[in-house]
Amino acid sequence: MKINPYQPDQTGMAYSVGTTLDRFIKSKQSDFPFASGELSQLLRDIALAAKIVNRETNRAGLANIGGAFGQTNVQGEEQQKLDVIANIRFIRALSKGGEVCAIVSEEEDAVIDLHNTSGKYVVAIDPLDGSSNIDVNISIGTIFSIYRRITPAGSPIQMEDVMQPGSKQVAAGYVLYGSSTMLVYTTGFGVNGFTYESSLGEFFLSHPNIQAPKDGNIYSINEGSELEWNKGVQDYIRLCKEKGYSARYIGSLVADFHRNLLKGGIYIYPPTQKNPNGKLRLLYEANALALLAEQAGAIATDGKQNILSIQPESLHQRTPLIIGSEKMVQTAMEYFAEEK
Q: Residue limits of the Fructose-1-6-bisphosphatase class 1 C-terminal domain (predicted)?
Protein backbone atom coordinates (compact mmCIF):
# COMPACT_ATOMS: atom_id res chain seq x y z
CA MET A 1 0.00 0.00 0.00
CA LYS A 2 1.34 3.40 -0.96
CA ILE A 3 1.32 5.90 1.94
CA ASN A 4 0.56 9.57 1.40
CA PRO A 5 3.05 11.32 3.71
CA TYR A 6 0.74 14.31 4.19
CA GLN A 7 -2.44 12.49 5.19
CA PRO A 8 -3.41 10.32 8.19
CA ASP A 9 -3.44 6.57 7.65
CA GLN A 10 -6.30 4.26 8.68
CA THR A 11 -5.20 4.36 12.32
CA GLY A 12 -5.55 8.14 12.38
CA MET A 13 -1.81 8.69 12.72
CA ALA A 14 -0.53 11.62 10.67
CA TYR A 15 2.70 11.28 8.71
CA SER A 16 3.10 14.98 7.95
CA VAL A 17 6.13 16.40 9.79
CA GLY A 18 5.08 20.05 9.65
CA THR A 19 7.08 23.18 10.50
CA THR A 20 10.77 22.95 11.38
CA LEU A 21 12.26 24.92 14.26
CA ASP A 22 14.46 26.87 11.86
CA ARG A 23 11.51 27.93 9.70
CA PHE A 24 9.45 28.81 12.78
CA ILE A 25 12.24 30.99 14.19
CA LYS A 26 12.62 32.83 10.89
CA SER A 27 8.88 33.50 10.75
CA LYS A 28 9.03 35.12 14.20
CA GLN A 29 12.01 37.43 13.62
CA SER A 30 9.71 40.41 13.09
CA ASP A 31 8.70 40.17 16.78
CA PHE A 32 12.08 41.70 17.67
CA PRO A 33 12.55 45.12 16.10
CA PHE A 34 15.80 45.58 18.06
CA ALA A 35 17.35 42.36 16.73
CA SER A 36 19.15 41.77 13.46
CA GLY A 37 18.89 37.99 13.41
CA GLU A 38 21.30 37.38 16.30
CA LEU A 39 18.65 36.06 18.68
CA SER A 40 17.32 33.73 16.01
CA GLN A 41 20.82 32.40 15.37
CA LEU A 42 21.39 32.02 19.11
CA LEU A 43 18.32 29.82 19.42
CA ARG A 44 19.61 27.73 16.52
CA ASP A 45 22.97 27.37 18.29
CA ILE A 46 21.19 26.07 21.39
CA ALA A 47 19.16 23.64 19.27
CA LEU A 48 22.35 22.34 17.62
CA ALA A 49 24.02 21.72 20.97
CA ALA A 50 20.84 19.99 22.18
CA LYS A 51 21.01 17.60 19.22
CA ILE A 52 24.58 16.68 20.15
CA VAL A 53 23.71 16.19 23.83
CA ASN A 54 20.72 14.09 22.78
CA ARG A 55 23.07 11.84 20.82
CA GLU A 56 25.49 11.54 23.74
CA THR A 57 22.65 10.78 26.15
CA ASN A 58 21.25 8.03 23.93
CA ARG A 59 24.61 6.29 23.68
CA ALA A 60 25.66 6.81 27.31
CA GLY A 61 25.27 3.17 28.28
CA LEU A 62 27.33 1.99 25.30
CA ALA A 63 30.09 4.60 25.46
CA ASN A 64 30.82 4.39 29.20
CA ILE A 65 29.87 8.02 29.79
CA GLY A 66 27.29 7.36 32.48
CA GLY A 67 28.02 7.62 36.17
CA ALA A 68 30.01 10.06 38.26
CA PHE A 69 32.90 12.11 36.92
CA GLY A 70 34.74 12.09 40.25
CA GLN A 71 34.55 15.82 40.96
CA THR A 72 32.06 18.23 42.50
CA ASN A 73 30.77 21.46 40.99
CA VAL A 74 30.47 24.85 42.67
CA GLN A 75 27.19 23.71 44.24
CA GLY A 76 28.99 20.93 46.10
CA GLU A 77 27.15 18.37 43.97
CA GLU A 78 28.89 15.38 42.45
CA GLN A 79 29.37 15.93 38.74
CA GLN A 80 28.26 13.24 36.35
CA LYS A 81 30.24 12.51 33.22
CA LEU A 82 27.42 13.78 31.05
CA ASP A 83 27.27 17.01 33.10
CA VAL A 84 30.78 17.77 31.94
CA ILE A 85 30.11 16.69 28.35
CA ALA A 86 26.92 18.76 28.07
CA ASN A 87 28.63 21.79 29.60
CA ILE A 88 31.42 21.58 27.00
CA ARG A 89 28.96 21.12 24.11
CA PHE A 90 26.83 24.13 24.99
CA ILE A 91 29.77 26.41 25.74
CA ARG A 92 31.35 25.53 22.40
CA ALA A 93 28.12 26.14 20.49
CA LEU A 94 27.47 29.45 22.21
CA SER A 95 31.09 30.57 21.83
CA LYS A 96 31.31 29.90 18.10
CA GLY A 97 28.00 31.51 17.20
CA GLY A 98 29.23 35.05 17.89
CA GLU A 99 26.00 36.35 19.45
CA VAL A 100 26.95 35.76 23.10
CA CYS A 101 29.36 37.81 25.20
CA ALA A 102 29.11 35.84 28.46
CA ILE A 103 27.79 32.55 29.83
CA VAL A 104 26.70 31.57 33.33
CA SER A 105 26.71 27.79 33.80
CA GLU A 106 25.78 25.63 36.76
CA GLU A 107 29.03 23.74 36.20
CA GLU A 108 31.31 26.79 36.32
CA ASP A 109 32.33 28.79 39.40
CA ALA A 110 32.48 32.18 37.67
CA VAL A 111 31.07 33.98 34.65
CA ILE A 112 32.55 32.73 31.38
CA ASP A 113 33.69 35.88 29.61
CA LEU A 114 33.91 35.03 25.92
CA HIS A 115 35.78 38.31 25.21
CA ASN A 116 33.33 38.89 22.40
CA THR A 117 32.65 42.57 22.99
CA SER A 118 30.32 42.75 20.00
CA GLY A 119 28.05 40.04 21.45
CA LYS A 120 24.63 41.32 22.46
CA TYR A 121 23.46 38.47 24.68
CA VAL A 122 24.20 36.76 27.97
CA VAL A 123 23.13 33.12 28.42
CA ALA A 124 22.52 31.44 31.78
CA ILE A 125 22.28 27.67 31.48
CA ASP A 126 21.97 24.42 33.40
CA PRO A 127 23.51 22.16 30.73
CA LEU A 128 22.10 18.91 32.12
CA ASP A 129 19.50 18.99 34.86
CA GLY A 130 18.79 15.72 36.67
CA SER A 131 21.87 14.00 35.23
CA SER A 132 22.11 11.57 38.15
CA ASN A 133 19.01 9.91 36.66
CA ILE A 134 20.82 8.91 33.46
CA ASP A 135 22.08 5.63 34.87
CA VAL A 136 18.50 4.52 35.54
CA ASN A 137 17.16 5.79 32.19
CA ILE A 138 14.95 8.57 33.56
CA SER A 139 14.23 11.79 31.65
CA ILE A 140 16.68 14.67 32.05
CA GLY A 141 16.92 18.15 30.57
CA THR A 142 18.68 21.40 29.72
CA ILE A 143 17.40 24.77 30.98
CA PHE A 144 18.44 28.12 29.49
CA SER A 145 17.80 31.84 29.89
CA ILE A 146 18.80 34.57 27.43
CA TYR A 147 19.32 38.20 28.45
CA ARG A 148 20.17 41.22 26.34
CA ARG A 149 23.31 42.87 27.70
CA ILE A 150 22.90 46.26 29.39
CA THR A 151 26.30 47.82 28.72
CA PRO A 152 27.06 49.08 25.20
CA ALA A 153 28.30 46.60 22.62
CA GLY A 154 32.02 47.00 22.08
CA SER A 155 32.79 47.38 25.77
CA PRO A 156 33.85 44.63 28.20
CA ILE A 157 31.01 42.85 29.97
CA GLN A 158 30.12 43.91 33.50
CA MET A 159 28.33 42.08 36.31
CA GLU A 160 25.25 44.21 35.68
CA ASP A 161 24.95 42.46 32.31
CA VAL A 162 24.72 39.13 34.12
CA MET A 163 22.84 39.95 37.31
CA GLN A 164 19.47 40.81 35.80
CA PRO A 165 16.05 39.83 37.18
CA GLY A 166 14.06 37.23 35.29
CA SER A 167 11.68 39.90 33.99
CA LYS A 168 14.52 41.04 31.71
CA GLN A 169 14.80 37.73 29.87
CA VAL A 170 14.33 38.02 26.12
CA ALA A 171 13.98 34.26 25.73
CA ALA A 172 13.99 31.13 27.85
CA GLY A 173 13.39 27.45 27.42
CA TYR A 174 14.33 23.89 28.11
CA VAL A 175 15.18 20.70 26.29
CA LEU A 176 13.68 17.46 27.57
CA TYR A 177 15.59 14.27 26.76
CA GLY A 178 13.11 11.46 27.28
CA SER A 179 11.03 8.99 25.27
CA SER A 180 11.22 11.74 22.68
CA THR A 181 13.43 14.82 22.80
CA MET A 182 11.62 18.15 22.95
CA LEU A 183 12.71 21.78 22.86
CA VAL A 184 10.23 24.18 24.45
CA TYR A 185 10.89 27.90 24.40
CA THR A 186 9.38 31.38 24.62
CA THR A 187 10.50 34.78 23.42
CA GLY A 188 7.72 36.52 25.31
CA PHE A 189 5.09 35.78 22.69
CA GLY A 190 3.68 32.48 23.93
CA VAL A 191 5.23 29.05 24.43
CA ASN A 192 5.90 26.56 21.64
CA GLY A 193 7.23 23.01 21.78
CA PHE A 194 9.26 21.17 19.14
CA THR A 195 9.90 17.42 18.96
CA TYR A 196 13.15 16.07 17.56
CA GLU A 197 12.94 13.73 14.58
CA SER A 198 16.29 11.96 14.75
CA SER A 199 16.11 10.36 11.30
CA LEU A 200 15.82 13.83 9.75
CA GLY A 201 17.96 15.67 12.30
CA GLU A 202 15.32 18.36 12.79
CA PHE A 203 13.06 19.74 15.50
CA PHE A 204 9.45 20.01 14.31
CA LEU A 205 6.65 22.09 15.80
CA SER A 206 4.52 19.60 17.75
CA HIS A 207 3.02 21.69 20.58
CA PRO A 208 2.02 25.15 19.27
CA ASN A 209 0.90 27.85 21.70
CA ILE A 210 1.06 25.76 24.88
CA GLN A 211 -1.46 26.84 27.52
CA ALA A 212 -1.23 25.40 31.02
CA PRO A 213 -4.55 24.21 32.51
CA LYS A 214 -5.87 26.68 35.07
CA ASP A 215 -6.29 23.87 37.59
CA GLY A 216 -4.98 20.37 38.03
CA ASN A 217 -4.79 17.30 40.26
CA ILE A 218 -1.04 16.55 40.31
CA TYR A 219 1.37 17.70 42.99
CA SER A 220 5.12 17.28 42.71
CA ILE A 221 7.29 17.53 45.82
CA ASN A 222 10.00 15.46 47.49
CA GLU A 223 7.98 13.98 50.33
CA GLY A 224 11.14 12.50 51.82
CA SER A 225 11.82 15.98 53.22
CA GLU A 226 8.38 16.33 54.86
CA LEU A 227 9.76 16.59 58.40
CA GLU A 228 11.83 19.60 57.31
CA TRP A 229 8.91 21.54 55.78
CA ASN A 230 7.20 24.38 57.54
CA LYS A 231 3.59 23.96 58.65
CA GLY A 232 2.09 25.80 55.66
CA VAL A 233 3.66 23.36 53.20
CA GLN A 234 2.64 20.37 55.32
CA ASP A 235 -0.96 21.60 55.51
CA TYR A 236 -1.19 22.21 51.76
CA ILE A 237 0.15 18.75 50.89
CA ARG A 238 -2.32 17.24 53.36
CA LEU A 239 -5.07 19.10 51.45
CA CYS A 240 -3.80 17.61 48.16
CA LYS A 241 -4.07 14.14 49.65
CA GLU A 242 -7.55 14.78 51.06
CA LYS A 243 -8.67 15.84 47.58
CA GLY A 244 -7.26 12.67 46.09
CA TYR A 245 -4.62 14.40 43.97
CA SER A 246 -1.90 12.28 42.37
CA ALA A 247 1.66 12.56 43.70
CA ARG A 248 4.14 12.64 40.82
CA TYR A 249 7.81 13.41 41.49
CA ILE A 250 10.53 12.33 39.07
CA GLY A 251 13.47 14.21 40.56
CA SER A 252 14.29 15.83 37.20
CA LEU A 253 13.05 19.42 37.32
CA VAL A 254 12.48 19.70 33.57
CA ALA A 255 10.49 16.47 33.42
CA ASP A 256 8.31 17.36 36.42
CA PHE A 257 7.68 20.87 35.10
CA HIS A 258 6.93 19.67 31.56
CA ARG A 259 4.32 17.17 32.72
CA ASN A 260 2.55 19.70 34.92
CA LEU A 261 2.69 22.37 32.20
CA LEU A 262 0.81 20.11 29.81
CA LYS A 263 -1.50 18.26 32.19
CA GLY A 264 -2.02 20.75 35.01
CA GLY A 265 -0.34 20.52 38.39
CA ILE A 266 1.94 22.18 40.90
CA TYR A 267 5.65 21.72 41.56
CA ILE A 268 6.99 22.73 44.97
CA TYR A 269 10.58 22.91 46.17
CA PRO A 270 10.10 24.72 49.48
CA PRO A 271 12.62 25.98 51.99
CA THR A 272 13.67 23.27 54.43
CA GLN A 273 15.72 23.12 57.59
CA LYS A 274 18.64 21.85 55.52
CA ASN A 275 18.15 24.40 52.71
CA PRO A 276 16.38 27.44 54.22
CA ASN A 277 16.84 29.41 50.98
CA GLY A 278 15.59 26.57 48.82
CA LYS A 279 17.77 24.50 46.54
CA LEU A 280 17.00 25.49 42.94
CA ARG A 281 19.13 28.14 41.28
CA LEU A 282 17.53 31.44 40.39
CA LEU A 283 19.51 32.52 37.33
CA TYR A 284 19.50 29.34 35.26
CA GLU A 285 16.65 27.22 36.61
CA ALA A 286 13.84 29.16 38.28
CA ASN A 287 13.88 32.26 36.04
CA ALA A 288 13.61 30.31 32.79
CA LEU A 289 10.77 28.10 33.99
CA ALA A 290 8.98 31.08 35.55
CA LEU A 291 8.95 32.95 32.24
CA LEU A 292 7.66 29.87 30.43
CA ALA A 293 5.00 29.35 33.09
CA GLU A 294 3.73 32.92 32.91
CA GLN A 295 3.68 32.88 29.12
CA ALA A 296 1.57 29.72 29.30
CA GLY A 297 -0.85 31.19 31.86
CA ALA A 298 0.64 29.58 34.97
CA ILE A 299 2.25 31.13 38.08
CA ALA A 300 5.74 31.01 39.60
CA THR A 301 6.63 32.34 43.05
CA ASP A 302 9.19 31.80 45.80
CA GLY A 303 6.40 31.85 48.38
CA LYS A 304 6.68 35.58 48.94
CA GLN A 305 7.07 37.23 45.56
CA ASN A 306 6.99 36.60 41.83
CA ILE A 307 10.14 34.74 40.78
CA LEU A 308 10.70 37.11 37.85
CA SER A 309 10.85 40.15 40.13
CA ILE A 310 13.76 38.88 42.26
CA GLN A 311 16.99 40.84 41.84
CA PRO A 312 19.84 38.29 41.88
CA GLU A 313 22.70 38.96 44.26
CA SER A 314 25.02 36.07 43.37
CA LEU A 315 25.62 33.82 40.36
CA HIS A 316 24.51 30.60 42.01
CA GLN A 317 21.81 32.09 44.23
CA ARG A 318 19.21 29.59 45.37
CA THR A 319 15.49 30.10 45.73
CA PRO A 320 12.37 28.21 46.81
CA LEU A 321 10.03 27.53 43.88
CA ILE A 322 6.26 27.07 43.74
CA ILE A 323 5.21 26.83 40.11
CA GLY A 324 2.25 25.50 38.18
CA SER A 325 -1.44 25.84 37.43
CA GLU A 326 -2.90 29.16 38.50
CA LYS A 327 -5.58 27.90 40.91
CA MET A 328 -3.30 25.36 42.57
CA VAL A 329 -0.55 27.90 43.21
CA GLN A 330 -3.04 30.45 44.52
CA THR A 331 -4.45 27.90 46.97
CA ALA A 332 -0.96 26.90 48.09
CA MET A 333 -0.09 30.54 48.71
CA GLU A 334 -3.16 30.93 50.91
CA TYR A 335 -1.85 28.16 53.14
CA PHE A 336 1.62 29.65 53.23
CA ALA A 337 0.15 33.10 54.06
CA GLU A 338 -1.93 31.70 56.92
CA GLU A 339 1.19 30.35 58.55
CA LYS A 340 2.81 33.79 58.47
A: 213-335
8 assigned to some structural domain = no
**Which residues are annotated as part of the binding site for substrate?**
129-132, 222, 249, 279
284-285-287-292 Cα dihedral, nearest 10 degrees: 120
Please choose, from the candidates 78, 147, 152, 148, the residue with its C-alpha nearest in 3D space to the C-alpha of residue 117: 152
Closest residue by Cα to residue 137 from 231, 62, 79: 62
Strand 266-269 relative to strand 218-220, pairing: parallel
> Domain limits at 34?
21-207
- 3-state secondary structure at position 80: strand
pLDDT tens string 75-92: 555 566 788 889 999 999
* Cβ(265)–Cβ(332) below 8 Å: no
Burial of 42 (0-12, 13-18, 19+ CB in 10 A): buried
Asked if residue 74 and residue 186 are part of one domain, the reply reads yes
Contacts of residue 126, Cβ cutoff 8 Å, sequence gap at least 6 = 105, 106, 142, 143, 144, 281, 284, 285
Which residues sit in the known binding site?
106, 126, 128-132, 222, 249, 279, 285
Give the residue from 179, 207, 235 where a domain finishes.
207
Tell me how far CA of residue 272 lies from CA of 87, 125, 226, 280, in angstroms. Answer: 29, 25, 9, 12
Neighbour tally for 299: CB within 10 Å? 22
My answer on whether 69 and 167 are in the same domain is yes
- pTM of model > 0.85: yes
Per residue in 15-57, pLDDT (tens digit) is 456 899 999 998 887 776 565 688 999 999 999 999 999 998 8
